[in-house]
Amino acid sequence: MSPGFAGQYPYFVGSICLLALFLAGFALFKEQRKPMLLSGLFSAPFGFASLIFVPDYWNPERVLVFGTGIEDLVFSFSNGGIVWLLGIAPFRRKVAVDLEARRVLRGYVYICLAGTVATAVSWRLGLPPMGATLASVFALGLALLLLRIEHLPIFLSGMVGFALLYGAWISVLALIWPHFLGHWNHENLSGFSLAFGVPAEELAWAIGFGGVWPLFMTFVFGGRWDADLGDTKPSAS
């Protein structure tokens, strides 16, 4: 029997569900709309990392592929906005951001270049794609924390929030469509797995991305703790 569209493309369906979560947060947290959108747009280009991860790390069925898949871009965009909200939401009335375009773009480019160098070094050390990604993500996170240790609460909030959300997301997909787990090339992974056979590398990525991305965006957005904000909205509103 045919598995149907959803069964054939669970990654696409899951990415659309993440987009729906993004839109829900976008609707509920009006003062965070602009930074959420920017965070999503800044994250979207990392969907092209599929050029590195497919097929050695995993090889999902994708609806439309043009170098990368439409699912990869939706996935990266949605997660970028969601994880910003998860990291900043508990502190959104205490942290002010400055979204002046030139400064924001300059900060984004500089940190992306630093991350690219860290990833290249990790590859040169012989790490596989996910290992190199994790090493560069955590190295970047450590550097950003050393520069602005006061942003540690945002790091922790994003890390815990996104790890729980992503763990639930991937577990539900694996529960509904067990063949989804076959998209990973398990022989190239660590061999450790979580509930429903989800690769441990996926949770490690969720922890790293969930903590470091909102930290990255806070730095790019010129985030600062401002006790005088009180119950007023941040300057991004």
Low-pLDDT stretches? 230-237
Global geometry: globular
Largest sheet, spatial ordering of strands: 1-2
Number of helices: 9
Which structural class should the secondary elements be placed in? mainly alpha
In total, the number of strands is 4
Output mean pLDDT.
91
Note the topology.
Elements: H1 4-8, H2 10-28, H3 33-43, H4 50-53, E1 65-66, E2 68-69, H5 70-88, E3 95-96, H6 101-124, H7 129-147, H8 152-176, H9 200-220, E4 224-225
Helix pairs in contact: 2-5, 3-5, 5-8, 5-9, 6-7, 6-9, 7-9, 8-9
Describe this structure in words.
This protein has 237 residues and is mainly alpha-helical. 62% of the residues lie in helices and 3% in strands. The chain has nine helices and four strands. It has helices at residues 4-8, 10-28, 33-43, 50-53, 70-88, 101-124, 129-147, 152-176, 200-220, and strands spanning 65-66, 68-69, 95-96, 224-225. It has a two-stranded antiparallel sheet with strand order 1-2. A hairpin with a 1-residue loop joins strand 1 and strand 2. Helix 6 packs across helix 7 (129-147). The longest helix is centred in the C-terminal third of the chain and has 25 residues, at 152-176.
